[in-house]
Amino acid sequence: MTATRPDAPGLTGTDTLGGHTTRQLLRLCEVVGLTAHDAEVYARTLTAMLGAAAARPLDLPPPNPTFLSDDHTPVEFSLSFVPGAAPTLRVLLEPGCAVGDLAQNGRLGLRAVRETAARWGFATDRLDELEDLFLPPSPEGPFALWCALELRPGGVPKVKVYLNPAANGRGHAAATVREALRRLGHHDAFAALPPHDRHLFFALDLGDWAEPRVKVYLAHQDLSAAEAGALSRTGGLPRAAEAERAEQNEEFFRIAAGQDEADGGGSETALAPAPAVRRPVQSCHAFTESASGLPSGFTLYVPVRDYAPHDGEALTRATVLLGRYGQDPAPLSAAVSALTDRGPEEGVGLVAYLALAHQQGQPPRVTTYLSSEAYAVRPPVGLLPAEPATVR
Ligand code: TRP
């Protein structure tokens, strides 16, 4: 059976998870102008890092109920928009996804990261120092280890590893984060974090970064736009610049969450009832040097899929936000077509998050997180009320 499914370009009845996601990756590489050679290298890397799960037929259920994406695809793409250049393509994946057991999943993940690092000659010593903290023999929590690759021109990715602060139990997440920061020399970093509800991720840059970061991700439940604006704690900014950043974050939150005054009080209320459960807004605090005790980078993440009735609306907001920062939205539309044949109004969740990142010495960056939807599309709000996601 090789009938082409209408909702995913090139998807056939005998397709595999690896086949589906690498084809998406190859098309996205073309969108951002990577060479065919770089694209091939990155597609092979993705396949290798997915391990045994790559060969899994797509008509079987997801290899494990990973929360990396809503439909449990262990892969998510993102486009980060930088002024004056093509956007950067990144891919987030769960290398241990072939197994459900968290301890084993984490061990597989660690091995995949070490193999990737060895292949490109990266050191993993900072990760090694944290292994016992984040990958204990009986880990708890929603995941063990994720990895992201920034697909640069030249065929050598930059690597990011995401670890679980709740690995020793939710009650120990704060202590785990504090100890991890301390081991990496960031003694004062923990005290610099803003008020929050939960520690979500602890991340490390590995490989060829000018300034490798240590990042702490926090969840903020029921945040107002003004509160979102006030979350950034970076150092080294004059007062006026700090106020401008808070305003940018606040405006970004309003537009991404559909609370924009300018569109007549919010398309959100007009078009879509709020879903019963909304994912929290997240903030990320990036530490590079340890002298100031303050982060040098800040990112605000809005889970736009929980605040929009369908992806058409999410894409409209993304386009407005890209315009605010002088970015051409064309690569975003091209990326959507590279991922799926379905219309944006036919589902919600293809655009998972919209993010605004500030890093010292660089202009603000807008990032769009794009789902693979290998397994399911969440129906748009209002068309199929109270339906769970349809599994294809
Ligand atoms: N799917 C998870 C979530 O929605 C984790 C995740 C995937 C995530 N990509 C992300 C979180 C980008 C923040 C930003 O929370």
Which helices and strands appear, and what pairs or packs with what?
Blueprint: H1 17-31, H2 36-50, E1 75-81, E2 88-93, H3 102-120, H4 125-128, H5 131-134, E3 145-150, E4 158-163, H6 173-183, E5 198-206, E6 214-220, H7 225-229, H8 239-256, H9 267-271, E7 281-287, E8 297-302, H10 311-324, H11 330-339, E9 351-359, E10 365-371, E11 376-377, E12 390-391
Antiparallel strand pairs: 1-2, 1-10, 2-3, 3-4, 4-5, 5-6, 6-7, 7-8, 8-9, 9-10, 11-12
The chain binds tryptophan.
Number of domains: 1
Number of separate helices: 11
Bound molecules: tryptophan
Number of strands: 12
Strand residue percentage: 15-25%
Mean pLDDT across every amino acid position: 91
- Euclidean distance between termini CA atoms: 16 Å
Helix and strand element order:
HHEEHHHEEHEEHHHEEHHEEEE
Integer-rounded radius of gyration:
20 Å
Low-confidence stretches: 1-7, 263-271
Biggest β-sheet: strands ordered side by side in the sheet: 1-2-3-4-5-6-7-8-9-10
Oligomer: single chain
Major sheet size, sense and barrel closure? 10 strands, antiparallel, barrel
Q: Which structural class do you get from the secondary structure elements? A: alpha+beta
Query: What proportion of the residues is helical, as a percent range?
Result: 25-40%
CA-based shape? globular
